[in-house]
Amino acid sequence: MFVHPSFDPIAIHLGKFGIHWYGLMYLVGFLAFLGLGKWQINHRKWHGWTIAMLDDALFFGALGVIFGGRLGYVLFYQFSYFIHHPLEIFAVWQGGMSFHGGFLGVLVAMWLFARKYQIKWLNIMDFVAPLVPIGLGAGRMGNFINGELWGRVTNAQWGMVFPKVDNLLRHPSQLYEFGLEGIVLFSALWLYSSKPRETGAVSALFLIGYGSFRFLAEYTREPDAYLGLLSMGFSMGQWLSLPMILLGIWMWFQAQKQRFN
């Protein structure tokens, strides 16, 4: 049995202000995006990309993550609450971000980026996909440090007690997602994209990989108290991940058709 260390959510105290661990995890994700992106430009055959474009892509993507993530949380998870407290939509410092909303926000942001540079949208997404999982993993580590999004009750020997919640043994589901959505997904995408692939294939692998890992991890994650489990015993996270998996499979077969045309 393990006990969650109950970390201080503020990593660096600066008088009355402080830098939160979760904010630092966002920084890790953005720096990883830049570092890995520069490596791709310098060592892989990604024609047309420059460092200046990469910086611009990060700016567009960051806006997509922040606005999409917040809007997704409002619409997917607590719409009934925010419809009666609309001003609190802007209180992002109180927490409340959705990956799936952030993902949709990034899709829109990269569409605008593609229009600006006159590059095919799928080519942009194929370049960006391998740069994302490190940030996803960092975000899950931020969840773990904050002791939030804890897992369901378990009898597993590696279960963990989260004192801020109760004294029950629970899955450290944040660490499962850190490993799957961060390390495993990054490794798969980085290796797969190391060779030229058909347009859309790398993006398809991201959709299938993230959607599948998130769907499985949700079985160990405590459902949101204000939602619970939905139809067929699936959580909201699972229902939002299913379209990603299905779209990814369709895109994969569409990409493979290019090889035989």
How would you concisely characterize the structure shown here?
The chain has helices spanning 21-43, 51-76, 79-82, 99-117, 121-128, 133-146, 173-192, 201-217, 236-260, and strands at residues 2-3, 10-14, 17-20, 160-161, 169-170. It is mainly alpha-helical.
Q: Could you describe the 3D structure shown?
A:
By secondary structure, this protein is mainly alpha-helical. It has one domain (19-260). The protein is 60% helix and 6% strand. It has nine helices and five strands; from the N terminus they run βββααααααββααα. The protein is globular and about 55 Å long. The mean pLDDT is 91. The chain crosses the membrane at residues 19-36, 57-79, 91-114, 121-139, 175-192, 199-217, 229-253.
Map the helices and strands.
Elements: E1 2-3, E2 10-14, E3 17-20, H1 21-43, H2 51-76, H3 79-82, H4 99-117, H5 121-128, H6 133-146, E4 160-161, E5 169-170, H7 173-192, H8 201-217, H9 236-260
Parallel strand pairs: 1-4
Antiparallel strand pairs: 2-3, 4-5
Pick out its properties:
mainly alpha, 5 strands, three-stranded mixed beta sheet, 6% strand, 60% helix, 261 residues, 9 helices
Largest sheet: 3 strands, mixed
The helix-and-strand class reads: mainly alpha
**Distance from first to last alpha carbon:** 56 Å
* Outline: globular
Mean pLDDT: 91
Strand order in the sheet with the most strands: 1-4-5
Question: Please, how many helices?
Answer: 9
Stretches where pLDDT falls below 50 for ≥5 residues?
none
Proportion of residues in β-strands: 5-15%
The H-and-E topology, N to C, reads as EEEHHHHHHEEHHH
Alpha-carbon Rg, integer: 19 Å
- The tally of structural domains comes to 1
Counted beta strands = 5
Helix content: 55-70%
Pathway: Protein modification; lipoprotein biosynthesis (diacylglyceryl transfer)
Family: Belongs to the Lgt family.
Subcellular location: Cell inner membrane
EC number: 2.5.1.145
